[in-house]
Amino acid sequence: MWEIKFSGFGGQGIVRCALITGKAVALYDDKYATMTQSFGPEARGGACQSQLIISGSRVLYPYCTSAGVLVALSQEAYDTYEPGLADGGILIIEEELVKPKANSSRVKLYPIGATRIAEAVGNRLFANLVVLGFFSAITGAASADAMKKALPGLVPDRFLKANLQAFDKGFEHGLATASQTNGAAQ
Amino acid sequence: MSELSPTPEYSLDDNAFREQNPMAEFLRMERMPHIWCPGCGIGTVVTSFAEAIKAGGYDMDKIAVVSGIGCTGRVAGYVKFDSFHTTHGRAIPFATGLKLANPELKVVVISGDGDLTSIGGNHLIHAARRNMDMTVICVNNFTYGMTGGQVTPTTPTSANASTTPYGNTEPAFSLPFLVDAAGATYVARWTSLHARNITKSIGEAMKHRGFSFIEVISPCTTLYQRRNRLGDGVSAMEYYREDGEIQHGADTRTVDIGYQGKIAMGKFVDRPRDTYLDAVVKHLTSVIGDDYELYGKTPMEKKAEEEARKSAAGKGESADICEDGC
Amino acid sequence: MAEFPKIVSADPKGVLTGRHFMDGDHALAEGALAAGCRFFAGYPITPSTETAERFAERCPEVGGLFIQMEDEIASITANVGAVWGGKKVMTVTSGPGFSLMMETFGLAAMMEVPMVIADVQRGGPSTGLPTLTAQQDMMQVRWGSHGDYRIIALVPDSPQECFDLAVEAFNLSEIYRVPVFIMTDETVGHMHEKVVIPPAEEIKVVERNWYTGPKEEYRPYKFDGKHGAPMVKAGDGYRFHSTGLTHDERGYPALTAEDNKKLLTHLIQKIDNNADKIIRVEESGLEDADIVVVSYGITSRIAIRAVQVAREQGLKVGFLRLITVWPFCENKIRELAGRVKAIVVPELNYGQIVLEVERAAAGKCKVISVNSCGGAVHDPEEILTAIMEGAK
After folding, report:
1. A63 touching C, CB under 8 A?
2. Do residues B161 and B32 both lie within one domain?
3. What is the pLDDT along chain C (392 residues), one digit of tens a residue?
């Protein structure tokens, strides 16, 4: 079972990240997925979070009790939600927007320059897809194949290709990072 | 007093009387006698409504009457149409749903001033704003009759009501002004003395596409007249005759009614504007295409039909041969 | 006599067949469209607005009409009017809007109009917690409008069930000519999960019980305590009357104690006498249970977790989920109370349905309320603690 929290500020596509991942898992990876999100004025502009529970059996409790994965795309989100991440949990941050604590050894930290990579693809707006590619490679919680299948309908048609490209870049970067990390650990 | 004409020779038998009654076609005669007091003007409005329908040659199966609560709210129970007696103040939203669900209906709301302009005031202005295709006839007797003569939003300032026993200190709504400002596209006012004019206005209003509003100033002899020492129904008629003034096309800002003051009457507003449904259908057709049809076939269905037609046309010859040959 | 209830396959144009990742609010709208709902007068209120938005978006392609009215009173009343105009109708709302609609629910019960209302419950009273979950309107839905009457209330525990129960709610409303409520909540409303919408031919829809007999014999009401009279719509030439006043079978006001008895007995008996047919529950492990957890909606999912832990610890814990909360499954509770030690009732309110459980249990077993002030779902631990207490 995975308890995943996506967080950042409104407008970064946080809810979209959880939607894409949830749809991928529920419809194409054939697992159970339950996604919830923060609502109301607090979801606009300020800190924003979305939660996704993935399981091989029906999800009963719909919220994270002890998140195993935290994706934090803003400093505020990191500061707010990092303490809720389980020991040994996976922490994915946008390295240009989040400065982690000096001692982050409690968790497995995976920084990525998603905005920079997205800009290379053509638009910083695709940063969330770079993050999702990276997330997929690092965690394996949702397969890359399923994630890509989930995109139509959740990203504008005219940007589908660019979003797929962004995802692939993130995914490649994730694979490389994972092999480096594993290498270092060995 | 002038001499009364002799009473027509009606049968004393109840059933025969009901059949003979010239209103029998329009009223649920089995529900007669009605509850209204002698001298009350609501009956005049009902008669005028029936006359207007008679004159207009409507399909009476396609007329629906909706009322709220109160003395006038009882109209729906007496008229022989599809008729609905709803909750207090909600005749207009009920009528809105009825009309939108079945657009072929002519929907007429008949209710009182307390019902339509106090508790139902919000619905009144919004239906006017939308130009919802319905006719609203407001019998304004300046009081809540059913509950014993309380003050309403149309009670003239200084008039006495059971909840303003020392006199009403609030200003009154001028209903033509209110609904005109809100967007009504047909607005008229008469008093219950002016039965023929009411009939004519109802006829025009029912032909009008959009939100039409007719205010009928009418006496509550039992409560408003008595409490204000204004005499009986005849006194009210005298007042209407003396102070009623026909001002067709008057600026609705000028037609407010002071206590026992002048009553401006006539057709004040009559202008064309898309009804709510016209606007919806027009707009959605422009957005979705000519295939759009309210409650009709969907664009998908039409496309499928067209494709079927095309493919049939493609195989046209063989199909024809088969049909002819088989 | 015409076939009743007349069950047909759903009209394909309203059915979005396929697998979706969808939230409960959207699933409600899809369920309504699948059930044949083609009119929706609504007013936005968190956390129910998404249903109205979905309906508004889907209407032009399905051949339906959405109108945003000036307030909740107008929206519910327009829906009652639209039923008499011949449509299947629905509206959604939450706490404050639900309170505003109460008077008209009484009108709907009195006029015996089939209609569906969803309350996406949020924390209250008053404006309360607009964005947070609760189950605090469970008694209000049953008793909220003045006078005596009956309604049906269903509670979904997932987006999938929002779809399924929306269809069922329409069907029940058509069979019993009664307003049917879907008492969902913010969590389920805003929760995305897989929703499978079957092909139209697999969705069974109850058609309105249209009157087909001679015009002169038509009566809009039949006080038979069963299903009531077949219906017509305004414009069909029956020139009928309907009123919120106490009335006779012609629909005419009839204002005596005797008249009210005939009418009211019918309104109550058509639900009470059919309760066994209406009530649906989900149960597990009740056969040899010592303790039973009775819950509904989102809370039941949390409760399962607690039940699982308790069973792992060797306790015989049964689970009963109320899919239909009203009418209440009192026979079931009465039977259980006679043979279990305790019934545990977690709910996201300060103890509402537990009162019904206590009434039905009639002191034959312990009844433990695991109440809440709303705003968040239970911690499964709280329910587990209550189960332990019940086991003592």
Report:
1. yes
2. yes
3. 567 999 999 999 999 999 999 999 999 999 999 999 999 999 999 999 999 999 999 999 899 999 999 999 999 999 999 999 999 999 999 999 999 999 999 999 999 999 999 999 999 999 999 999 999 999 999 999 999 999 999 999 999 999 999 999 999 999 999 999 999 999 999 999 999 999 999 999 999 999 999 999 999 999 999 999 999 999 999 999 999 999 999 999 999 999 999 999 999 999 999 999 999 999 999 999 999 999 999 999 999 999 999 999 999 999 999 999 999 999 999 999 999 999 999 999 999 999 999 999 999 999 999 999 999 999 999 999 999 999 99
Which letter does DSSP use for residue B172 in this model?
P
CATH architecture classification, A2-179: 3-Layer(aba) Sandwich (3.40)
Task: Supply the range of the domain harboring residue B307.
Answer: 278-325
Can you give the residue ranges of every domain in chain A? Answer: 2-179
Which class for C338: exposed (0-12), middle (13-18), buried (19 or more C-beta within 10 A)? exposed
Please provide the CATH number assigned to the domain covering C7-206. 3.40.50.970
- Structure tokens belonging to residue B13: 């038998």
Option in B77, B100, B297 nearest C67 (CB): B100
CA distance to partner chain B, nearest, from residue C63 (Å): 4
Neighbours of C120 (CB within 10 A): 32
Q: How many CB pairs under 8 A join A and C?
A: 60
> Is C130 in Cβ contact with A40 (below 8 Å)?
yes
C73 chain-B contacts, CB cut-off 8 A:
90, 93
Domain boundary among B254, B275, B296: B275
The total number of structural domains in chain B stands at 2
Which chain C residues touch A32 with a CB distance below 8 Å?
193-194
Q: Do A60 and C301 touch (CB under 8 A)?
A: yes
Task: Decide if A26 and C21 are in contact by the 8 Å CB cutoff.
Answer: yes
- A33 and C19 in contact by Cβ < 8 A? no
- CB of C378 closer than 8 Å to CB of A60: no
The Cα–Cα gap between A66 and A89 comes to 9
Cα separation values, B312 from B74, B305, B308, B321, Å:
58, 10, 6, 13
Whether residue B8 lies inside any domain: the answer is no
Query: Does the ipTM exceed 0.90?
Result: yes
Which backbone phi and psi does A34 adopt, to 5 degrees? -130, 125
Residue B261 lies in a domain: yes
* CB-based contact A156:A144 (threshold 8 Å): no
